[in-house]
Amino acid sequence: MNDLRTYMDQLANRPGNLLTTEVSVDPKLELTRIVYMLEKQNKRPAVFFKKVRGSDLPVLTNLFGNRERLALAMDTTEEKLNQVYREREKRPIPPVIVASGPIQERVMTGDEVDLTRFPIVHHNSGDAGPYITAGVTTVKDPDTGIRNAGMYRFMLRNRNQLSVYLAEANHVYYIYRKYCEKKQNMPIAITIGAHPVFYLGSLSFGSIDTDEYAVIGGLSGGAMQVVKCKSVDLEVPASGEICLEGYIDWEKREPEGPFGELHTLYGETMNQPVVTITAVTMRHDPIYHDVCSGDVEHQLMGGIPRLGQIYNQVKVACPGIRDVYMPPSGYCRTACYVSIKKYVEGEPANGAAAVFSADPFVRHAVFVDEDVNIFDDYEVLKAVNLNMDISKCFIIHNAKGSQIDPASRSGVVTKIGIDATRPLKSKFARINFNEGIGGIDLAKIFKNSAVKL
């Protein structure tokens, strides 16, 4: 697997995909506002801030701002991204341990550890403080020894401590509970900055017995090289930028939040576990990676890895499934669009149950016919308005959801499956808008028009 820098070189050769600036920016609000302003102009480049006040390190953000860049990371096209991800996800390749790597060119322990030297970004004015948002957390199950990797937010507390939000729907929460039952601290390694495939693989939606490092190998087509951490019994990618090693206290809790969530609303302050950092390793000239909270990249990067698991689950109920998409309009979490070739009535209801089983974050599952473009909200909404029969909607009350979902009550939500497919025995014929247009040349017909086609 290539590293972050290799990928940045690829982006630099694609006009409009990487903006670089030497102008000094403030990591408190200003940095994210620049990205949000670009977003309002419908521009989603990755942005590399070479000078950030209060730190010697540059910041890279908005790396996952569109599907095209994620497809580039997977060496495929945007159209084939979903298919390629789920196919490679099924062919895991375990990592290999190497003696050394760039991520350990510098090693700091004890009093040398000072997280305040990093350009940790304060994203939004209502946030409780600066947050690490692009850290991949690696832990090991104390019973099985199976490695688990995922992404969680970390609030800066002081020179060597963070608070972490562990969502109850995520595997690391269950693993952490095992350590608590044993009254043991949980060793942790947080990797900041790596090739995008490392992030996409860490967010894969497999079982709790899945080693995400093996999934990452499958996604990239080769075993990921890892190095042993210096102060904990864990491994991290040898080609990464920064690693924070330490442990999550099994007993200590401190207030964490509020934080501007991916759905663009602030969550509540909650008592969350405290992380103590025992060592920092990094390259000689590391790049600090950040994910803009609540922005499209925050939504996309977490949405795409979920699609493979949903697809596989739905295929049992709907053999004619074509594709699955979680749109940014649903924050790539709450809504799921499923394209199917329907063979019998009732399949969408069974398929909706499969969606909710595969991903507890989803509360709206919309099923449409295969000729509807699920990557276009407008087309999906047209199908809903044309075909939805409310009496056939599949509704689940008191279902497990996400604690940060604004519609939830203590993590419990109501979910709905919407059948927006056409009846198999419809009495209405459908207009064929492509009929007879083969020989029409609009440019020739309107050659004298003031508006050029």
Give a brief rundown of this model:
The chain is an alpha+beta fold.
Describe this structure in words.
With 453 residues, the chain is of the alpha+beta class. It folds into 2 domains: 81-293, Pnp Oxidase, Chain A (Roll); 297-419, 3-Layer(aba) Sandwich (UbiD C-terminal domain-like). It is 25% helix and 25% strand. It is built from 11 helices and 21 strands. The chain has helices at residues 4-12, 30-40, 67-73, 81-89, 171-181, 196-202, 212-220, 296-317, 347-358, 377-387, 442-445, and strands at 18-21, 46-49, 59-61, 96-97, 106-109, 131-132, 135-140, 147-151, 154-156, 161-164, 186-192, 225-228, 235-237, 242-256, 270-282, 288-289, 321-325, 335-340, 364-369, 394-400, 412-419. The strands form 4 sheets. Strands 5, 6, 7, 8, 9, 10, 11, 14 and 15 form a 9-stranded antiparallel sheet that branches. The protein has a 5-stranded mixed sheet with strand order 17-18-19-21-20, with helices on both faces. Helix 4 crosses helix 7, helix 4 crosses helix 8 (296-317) and helix 6 packs across helix 7. The protein is globular and about 75 Å long. The model has no long low-confidence stretch (mean pLDDT 90).
